[in-house]
Amino acid sequence: MGVFGMVKENNVLLIVVDQWRGDTISYLNHTCVRTPHLDALCRDGVTFHNTYAQCAPCGPARASLLTGQYMMNHRVVQNGIPLDARHDNLAHALRRAGYDPAIIGYTTTTPDPRTTSPPDPRFTSLGDLMPGWTPIAQFGPARRTYFDWLRARGVDVPADTNDIWLPDEPSPTGPGATRAASRVDAEHSDTSWTTEYGLAYLKGAGARPWFLHLGYHRPHPPFIAPGPYNKHYHPDEVPLPVRAQSPEAEAAQHPLLGYQLDHLQQASFFRDGAGLGRDMDEAAVRRMRASYYGLISEVDDHLGRVIAYLKESGQYDNTLIVFTSDHGEQLGDHHLLGKECYFDESFHVPLVIRDPRSAAHETRGNIVEAFAEQIDVMPTILDWLGEVVPRNCEGASLLPFLIGETPDHWRSAAHYEFDFRPSYDAAGTPPPLGLTIDQCGLSIIRDERFKYVHFDALPPLFFDLSEDPNQFCNLADDPAYAGEILNYAQKMLSWRIHHADRTLTGYSSSPEGLLTLA
Hints:
Strand order of the largest sheet: 4-3-5-1-6-7-2-8
Largest sheet: 8 strands, mixed
Strand content: 5-15%
Order of helices and strands: EHEHHHEEHHEHHHEEEHHEEEEHEE
Helix content: 10-25%
Number of helices: 12
């Protein structure tokens, strides 16, 4: 029994999507996207409008989500970097609570090399599964389980399996962003695969309380939707990208931004993409956005199927539902694609929590504007289950918000980090801008008024969000802001000191023996 009176007769459904921007929910008044099923969950739960991932891309972000730690402590700084085996995680904590934590999807985790040997085949992939989880259906980098599922259903899988995400017909606009449907249809998409395994698990769960991490790969690239979702949105109705007049004008802001603009390839986002992302004109960006929103609508329909089953089976009112994404997506903003640099679009993520308790009835439909962080998910789930939150978990429980309370001394800013060293598919190549791999870090503090970006070995950035919400004007060299810049640098230093690894700092030897201090 925990402080909120929960007992272990309850279920938890953690839905993690991939690369879903925090602003892309119709409940939050997006200008064109339509997410009726997610909106229904928002109306029946609490939506945390200002939630930020602690890092990107997938491997680092999921390490933070599932350990509750900032990147500066778990140190999975890029895809392919191992997760230290000493770190606790949500799955281990759930096992201590008596749950068998099941997962459909992936965690993009490279194992600690000290726990195995270099020939371990897991070191040849982008990432494996974090320890502690029971895999129901794993969507690993090779996606073998998914492609085998397609073959079992009579789908003709091409020799190069990723070609199922090519257009099903020649595109009149050429390679890259297209309105054409993918070769794989909606019935056999990876989103459908995820839902089929999810429903099968829920139907077989029985009376024992369960925990399911349900992971959808979309709207992650390739940005091409199956029919009919490819036509759900017309390019003319999507919002225009927020970007400078030209890539050259954008690049002038900072050396890292210039480097990324000169190197990000469209081939990473479209199966037949060619050229740099920065070269996409307005029409191409509109087509890309229409496809991205189509992928979101597809996932939304499948969320509806899962939640409908929970209601039909009588499990909805004893299941905590958490919906979030690992990170965001630039989607052409600042002439960028993917999750890059230091802009909010890459780190702002959705977070919706539906608490079935009667105590949460009065808050249904609330939108919380206070800053939440991805690392809050693990302590929230454990708190709801009445479990002790591990001391090395640096997030804070969001349960008070679910019953209409704001905790004392709640954070007034969000913090996130990014490391721009070469990742898995470019490992071994020299780091950018003449730096070493240990000089490729940046750290960000962002509140309602200002945003400060500190680099290890590059010039800082400072934005006045009240005057420049889209972050075009770097004020780091403006003498008028020198005092504020010092203030935010000090805040960042205080944050790092406060959240330094505390795994064992709550214990001490003493004349009486081992003491627990916190």
